[in-house]
Amino acid sequence: MVLPADIDALSNAELKALVLALVTRVTELERTVAAQRDEIARLKGLPGRPPIKPSGLDQATAPKEARRSGRLRRRTKRAELRVHEERVITVEALPKDARFKGYASFLVQDLVLQAKVVRLRRERWLTPDRQTLTAPMPAEVTGHFGAGLRRFVLAQYHQGQVTIPRLLEQLASLGVMISKRQLVRLLISGQDGFCAEAQAVLRAGLESAAWISVDDTGARHRAHNAVCTQIGNDHFAWFGTTASKSRLNFLELLRAGHRDYVINPAALDYMRQRALSGPVIAQLQAHPEQHFADAATWQAHLERLDIPALTVTPDPVRIATEGALWGAIQAHGLLPDTVIVSDDAGQFLVGRHALCWVHAERLVHKLDTFTDEQRFAQQHLRRLIWWFYRDLKAYAREPSRRRRSELKARFERIFTRRTGFVMLDRLLQRLHANKAELLMVLERPAIPLHTNGSETDIRAQVIRRKISGGTRAEAGRDCRDAFLGLLKTCRKLGISFWHYLGERLGVPDAPAVPSLPDLVRARCIAA
Prior knowledge:
Elements: H1 12-43, H2 57-60, H3 64-72, E1 124-126, E2 132-134, H4 147-159, H5 164-173, H6 180-188, H7 192-208, E3 211-221, E4 224-232, E5 237-242, H8 247-254, E6 261-262, H9 265-273, H10 278-286, E7 291-292, H11 295-304, H12 316-331, E8 339-342, E9 352-355, H13 357-365, H14 372-397, H15 401-415, H16 422-433, H17 435-438, H18 452-467, H19 474-493, H20 497-505, H21 516-526
Parallel strand pairs: 3-8, 8-9
Antiparallel strand pairs: 1-2, 3-4, 4-5, 6-7
Helix pairs in contact: 4-20, 7-19, 7-21, 8-12, 9-12, 13-14, 14-15, 15-16, 19-21
C-alpha cells in the first residue's frame, strides 16, 4: 500500500477510507502472523491453539423448565416387558401356623444367543418311468442361512456399527461357520426390498413434509472421495452417496428415484431466477416436446437446440438442466410448499429456503480477535444474537403479528450496526443479506431454527467412515445408505429396528410393522 505524500491535505472521507484500508491490512497481517505462529509451533512439536468449543446456542437458550424436566424424567419399563417364563420359588422350611401371603415378584431379563443348525431331509422318489421326484424346499428357506441369522447380521452391522472382521469373530464364537464373502453377501445381496422401501420413504417425506433439513459429509466409494447427503425431518431420514455435491446433484437426489426431466412453469421460473438468457428460455418454452424420459434424451434435446454451443455465463446447459430437474420435482408432487433448512451451503439453495441460526452464530463465535476492543464487540454481538434467538424460539411456540413486526425491527438493529471491527462488520453485512432465510420462521413457525437433526442423523455415516473402509460395489453403497435411512426412520417413528428387520425378513413370531412410507406420510400430514 502506498501512503499519500501529504496526509494533511486529505479530506475527511479520504481519511476514513485510508483508515479503513489500513485496518483491513493490519487485520490480514495479524491473521497471517497467527497462522505462521501455529505452523512454527507444529514444526517444533509445540502445542497449538486450543480448539474452539461449539457455541451451545440452542441448548443455552432453551427454557430452564424444559431442560430441568428433561433431566428428571424417568420412564417405567416393567409394563412393556413380556414374561416368557414364570418360576415359583418355595420356602423350604415353614414354621407352624404360617399363612400364605401371595408372591413377591422379581423380574430377571436375559438374552439367549446360540447357533441353531437345521438339517432338511427332503424325500426323493423314483417313479416307474425313471424320473426322480424331490420334495421342494420350504418357502421360508432362501439359502444356507436363516432369517434370524440375517436379522442379527444386519442389526449388528448397521445399528451396532460392528465391522465385518469383528462380526465374523463374533459369529464364530457363537458357533456359526461363515466366510467373509458369505457375510458380505448377506449384507448386500437380495436387499432390493429394503432399498425400494427407503426410496419410498423419501418420496413420502418430500410429498407431505412441511419442512426438511439437509446436510452432507464425506464418504468413500471405489477408493475415491464421495459425498453422502442427508435429507429428513423429525419423522424420516434418507441418505444418498454420490460423487458430487453440486446443486445439480442435489436436485437429482430430490427427484426421489425418478429419472425424467420436465419443462413446465416451475422449471421456467427457476431458469429466470438463475439468470438464464431470455432467448434460451423462449426456445425451451416454445418447443412442443416438454417431457424427457432420461438424461440421454434431455441432452439430445439440448444439442438439437444448439444450447451447448453457447459460451456465456452462467452456463446455459447447467442452468437449463437444473430447471428441468426442478420442473420434474414439482411435476411429481414433491416439495409442494416445503421449506428446506440448511447450513448455507450453496448446493442446497433451491425452492423455499431457510438458514440454520447455529451455523450463523458460529461464524461470529469463530471470528479471530486480536484486541480487547474486538473481543468486546464480538462478545456483545453474540449476547445480542443469543437473546434474539431465544425470542425467536418463543415466537415459534406462540406466534403473533405484533411479535413478528418487533422481531423484524430487532433484526435490522442488530445486523446493520457498525462496531469498528472490520471483519465483524463484513460478517454482519453478510448475515443481513440472508435476512429472508434467517427469518423464515416468522412466516413458518413450524420449521426448526437449526439443522441439529440433520447433523445428528449424519453422524452415523461419519462413524462408519472412520471405522470401516469405503464401499466397492454399487449394491454395497446403496445398501449402506438404505439401511442407515431405515434405521433412523424407525427410531423417529418409535419402531424397534430389530422388530422391523424380523417382520420384513419373515422371522417367525416377529411383531407386525406397518409400511414405513405410510407412517411417514401420516405423521408429516398430522404435524
